[in-house]
């Protein structure tokens, strides 16, 4: 009987229990883990990856050429517990023949729920209203006090009608949205049919939407897409929501648009950088709601993500098909 080949696996953070259990059951792997909920320091990451056959990382871990060099020739698989892969040096990874696993699909519902929650929180000014209750600002009923914007009879524009964009539209439709617009690399008539969504140009979407939800991937084409021009196209009563990646938005331009009244309000679950410094100008604005990137933060979703990341890693190490492999 041939002896079992044991492969080194490095995990960059504590992960949910079901994912940890899946790795622990793998007799052909020796698992090392950064035992903290906080990010691993760069030097420790380089040391931990040295000689590793497999890496399980998070979206906050920047996997670049220097780190791949530190890992060495053994590294065969990178599994990220995320749907986004913009933290991975994909060209360098492809050059080295390293397989990549990721976790699409499983976080769609949780992220869409969060997007709708953030939209409603922002457009109905809930943080302001809660603060008024606490600070004594609530005195009597006033006809226009704390008024916001409603979804009924509105036009919603979605930047990126992928899985998450569709799930957001599906949840918004029962609120009485009159019209859906979307933009992206190309029309998606089959997916758009469910919402009678119209494919339009970016300027047209910005100009005609009462609510804009950004749900696209971060690419060269979308980096900085929502800039000064974009916000100037928007209605003064429009509400802007971003649940994609912070770098899709020029935050300086967004600040100016909000502070000057160019647009009504914004809700962000993603920023640049993350975490956002506590002295950032956006945090001084009442009409800007910022969350700490919690789109997929439900217990069920995070556990499923961790199991899928573990299964991707183990399958890749064993030369088997991954449940979700990124085609490079």
* Distance from first to last alpha carbon: 36 Å
The average pLDDT is 96
What is the helix tally?
12
| Main beta sheet strand tally, sense and closure | 7 strands, parallel
Q: What percent of residues are in strands? A: 5-15%
General form: elongated
Classify the secondary structure makeup into a structural class: alpha/beta
What is the radius of gyration computed over CA atoms, rounded to a whole number of angstroms?
Answer: 22 Å
Low-confidence stretches: none
User: How many strand units?
Assistant: 12
Arrangement of strands in the largest sheet: 8-7-6-9-10-11-12
Order of helices and strands: EHEHEHEHEHHEHEHEHEHEHEEH
Helix content: 25-40%
Structure description:
The chain is α/β, with parallel strands linked by helices. The chain contains 12 helices and 12 strands. It has helices at residues 17-24, 42-49, 65-71, 90-95, 108-123, 126-135, 163-172, 189-192, 202-208, 228-233, 251-259, 299-317, and strands at 7-11, 29-33, 54-57, 77-80, 99-101, 155-159, 179-183, 198-199, 211-214, 239-242, 265-268, 288-290. The strands form 2 sheets. Strands 8-7-6-9-10-11-12 form a 7-stranded parallel sheet, with helices on both faces. It has a 5-stranded parallel sheet with strand order 2-1-3-4-5, with helices on one face. Helix 1 packs parallel to helix 12. The protein starts with 6 loop residues before the first strand and ends in an 11-residue tail after the last helix. The mean pLDDT is 96.
